[in-house]
Specification:
Blueprint lengths: L6 H18 L3 H15 L8 H15 L1 E4 L3 E4 L5 H8 L3 H15 L3 H31 L15 H17 L2 H4 L2 H20 L4 H4 L9 H6 L12 H7 L4 H21 L16 H23 L11 H5 L11 H16 L24 H16 L8 H8 L6 H19 L11 H29 L6 H4 L2 H18 L8 H5 L4 H14 L5 H16 L8 H8 L7 H4 L16 H7 L5 H8 L15 H4 L28 H4 L6 E3 L4 E4 L3 E5 L6
Helix pairs in contact: 1-3, 2-3, 3-4, 3-5, 5-6, 5-16, 6-9, 7-9, 7-14, 9-13, 17-20, 19-20, 19-22, 20-22, 22-24, 24-25, 25-29, 28-29
């Protein structure tokens, strides 16, 4: 903190602000508000770096607080000065802006609404960066090189078509708020735009100057004579694009049918686009194209000023690298300046609060293509594809086999199970479609789609679980297990978590358990049940569930209000001893025979699923011959008499087996050993060997 500014410094700052405001044609009220706020921060904090960059942050915050009256529409948020113009005038890159704006928000104590808007804006920028990296190579696969100097002399040259296609995409995306920060949906929307423009190019008079003759999606008729009839709808290449470029046909067709096509038809009806409204063609005919290009750019500029802030046409500019803050593609070896930029980029990715750490948008985006084994888009779409294959052929209701299992119980649980799933579904849709403190609400269509997939998965997993339990516990009545509300709630939450993860959702764990009000302790207990019952889970899905398991073990199970403490109390402190839970060993953990770390012990555990074992221990993969768990799901969720030493807390198994990554507190209680809690939060046995490190927040 510093208050001893030299007098000349204040004058210099004011002159810088005046210059910036003049370039932006800023109104006096906004400029005064920005200066007052900046002065307050300037007199309280030491601001490092170029002062103009901090002025830009103050100006942006002041602009977004303002409003402008409109004809017949009341007030419009903002003052019609775009973020892009502010950044260009202040020579501040987008990545630097996001970094400084987070600090400015804290120093200025800006509202939660403003912070949410910034996080959404940053997420949208990250998604657009990934999408543009896919757009350019796909376009060049379908069309002629847009950067060719020969093409620039044509009346409707490929360079303009390239820019038109991207602008049409970002304008359309901007009008679907729930798509803008969704990688999978945004990518399929891009494929829809490419499909539309390609179909129009096939019917264009100068199509040979536009179309790449080696494109593998060319219609057979065009390959034969280079002509397609203009009296028929243009051929659709969307399915072929999905095959060639990591798309999902069902997802892409859904976006086209329900969002893209109706919206393009609306643009024709409003005469923003000119051509054949019936066939959605003739957009690239010379005179129509000139009008269409101007109209789309004009409409998008209005959108940026009133809603969008970030002008995504920045990716098309010659100075895109400087404006965005990413390394130049043309530099073969990193220079000192480039190294600095990459360092800034890495810091941005690491510190960005708007990116969920489990999404494919965490830094690999900015690596050179040759360094990527899997692209962010292909990773995301492959995970969704795996999910869809898991539920293929199933329905969001109990199968005939599962219904028979229900009816074989002494008390048929069908009605209560259906009612519970419906209630949980309504709760999910309500929270998914409404803004939260850190996540904007999504469209109801997406909520229903995610819920349907989760319901199908739930009934499939439940059927697999019941089939295993029926085989294991022949003749036993399953009513007790099927009436366990906590079991069904945990299983449904786990299914929803897997679906949200597959779609790279921002609503990652613990969002779902907070929505359905499920303690982490119980979510933990269902993870192994889930993994054992679904062999179709991808590597990334299993790793994600494993990371949740570790979160619960490391911290979430030990909070003051954790259900663990109630379970411990109900167990009467009579829980398995250390010796009972270490396989094949009666010795103390600190002895020579038991000197190995817990990881190899877990890797040798007979109940650890091979896919979990691979990630936990690094001892390699063993996907086949999955052994059955010594602990049945029925026992895992049953309620033995209080005081029983077999009381299950974390769902641990009989002696000589353990199902957790590390021994739980219940496993470490031993009458033969003295347990002490160190000052650093470590749990010691006999004052010698550290068994477990946990944050001790409760109990």
């Amino acid at each position: 903190v510093s208050n001893d500014r030299p007098p000349a410094s204040d004058c210099s700052v004011r002159r810088s602000l005046e210059t910036l405001c003049q370039e932006l044609n800023m109104d006096e009220q906004t400029a005064a508000a920005a200066m007052d706020n900046f002065t307050a921060i300037w007199n309280t904090y030491t601001l490092e770096g170029d002062v103009v960059h901090w002025l830009a942050c103050s100006l942006y915050a002041a602009c977004r607080k303002g409003s402008v009256p409109t004809v017949g529409k009341g007030l419009m948020e903002g003052n019609c000065v775009s973020l892009t113009r502010i950044l260009r005038s202040s020579k501040l890159s987008l990545i630097q802006f996001f970094s400084k704006m987070r600090k400015w928000s804290d120093m200025s104590n800006l509202s939660q609404h403003f912070r949410l808007r910034m996080e959404q804006l940053e997420r949208n920028f990250e998604v657009s960066t990934v999408i543009f990296r896919k757009f350019e190579p796909i376009f060049m696969d379908m069309f002629q090189d847009p950067h060719s100097p020969v093409a620039q002399r044509l009346p409707c040259h490929i360079g303009d078509v390239f820019k038109f296609c991207w602008t049409l995409f970002v304008y359309t995306k901007g009008n679907f708020r729930m798509i803008g920060d969704d990688l999978v949906n945004s990518y399929h929307l891009l494929l829809c735009c490419l499909d539309l423009v390609f179909g129009n190019a096939l019917l264009c008079s100068n199509r040979k100057e536009l179309i790449n003759p080696t494109f593998r999606g060319l219609p057979a008729l065009y390959r034969a004579d280079g002509h397609v009839s203009a009296d028929e709808p243009p051929p659709c290449v969307l399915e072929r694009l999905c095959e060639l470029h990591d798309g999902l046909v069902v997802e892409a067709k859904g976006i086209k049918q329900h969002y893209f096509k109706p919206y393009i038809q609306k643009l024709f009806q409003k005469q923003i686009l000119r051509g054949s409204e019936e066939l959605l063609t003739e957009m690239l005919d010379p005179q129509n194209f000139i009008d269409n290009n101007k109209a789309i750019n004009r409409e998008y500029e209005e959108y940026v000023l009133t809603v969008g802030d970030f002008d995504e046409r920045v990716f098309l500019g010659a100075d895109a690298d400087e404006e965005i803050g990413t390394p130049r593609k043309t530099v073969p070896e990193p220079s000192a300046g480039l190294a600095t930029t990459r360092h800034q980029l890495q810091q941005h990715v690491e510190k960005s609060g708007s990116l969920a750490p489990s999404t494919p948008l965490t830094g690999r985006v900015y690596l050179k293509e040759k360094d990527l084994l899997v692209t962010p888009v292909s990773s995301a779409t492959q995970t969704v594809s795996r999910l869809q294959s898991m539920v293929a052929g199933s329905r969001a209701a109990p199968s005939d086999h599962l219904t028979q299992i229900f009816k074989s119980c002494s008390r048929d649980p069908t009605e209560s199970i259906l009612a519970r799933v419906k209630t949980l579904g309504q709760t999910f849709k309500h929270h998914y479609t409404n803004d939260s403190e850190d996540t904007p609400g999504s469209h109801i269509d997406f909520a229903e789609n995610r819920l349907k997939l989760a319901e199908i998965l739930y009934y499939k997993i439940l059927e697999n679980v019941m089939a295993q339990e029926t085989k294991r516990l022949q003749g036993k009545d399953m009513s007790v297990l099927l009436e366990q509300d906590i079991f069904h709630c945990s299983l449904m939450a786990c299914c929803l978590e897997v679906v949200l993860f597959a779609y790279s959702s921002q609503r990652t764990f613990p969002w779902i358990i907070s929505v359905v009000k499920l303690p982490p302790f119980y979510f933990f207990k269902v993870i192994e049940v889930f993994i054992r019952s679904e062999e179709g889970l991808s590597r990334d899905m299993v790793k994600h569930l494993n990371s949740i398991e570790e979160q619960v073990l490391e911290s979430r199970a030990w909070t003051r209000d954790s259900a663990l403490w109630s379970a411990l109390k109900a167990a009467g402190s009579k829980v398995p001893t250390v010796e009972e839970v270490i396989p094949g060993s009666g010795s103390a953990p600190g002895s020579a025979s038991g000197a190995q770390s817990h990881l190899p012990l877990v890797a040798l555990s007979p109940i650890i699923h091979p896919r979990i074992r691979e990630f936990r221990s690094g001892l390699g993969s063993a996907r086949k011959d999955v052994p059955p768990s010594p602990l049945s799901v029925h026992d895992r969720y049953s309620s033995p008499a209080a005081g029983s030493a077999k009381r299950r807390l974390f769902g641990d198994d009989p002696p000589l087996a353990t199902s957790t990554l590390i021994p739980s507190v219940s496993q470490l209680s031993s009458p033969a050993k003295r347990l002490t809690f160190g000052s650093t939060g470590t749990l010691k046995i006999g004052g010698q060997t550290t068994i477990l490190s946990i944050p001790l927040q409760g109990g």
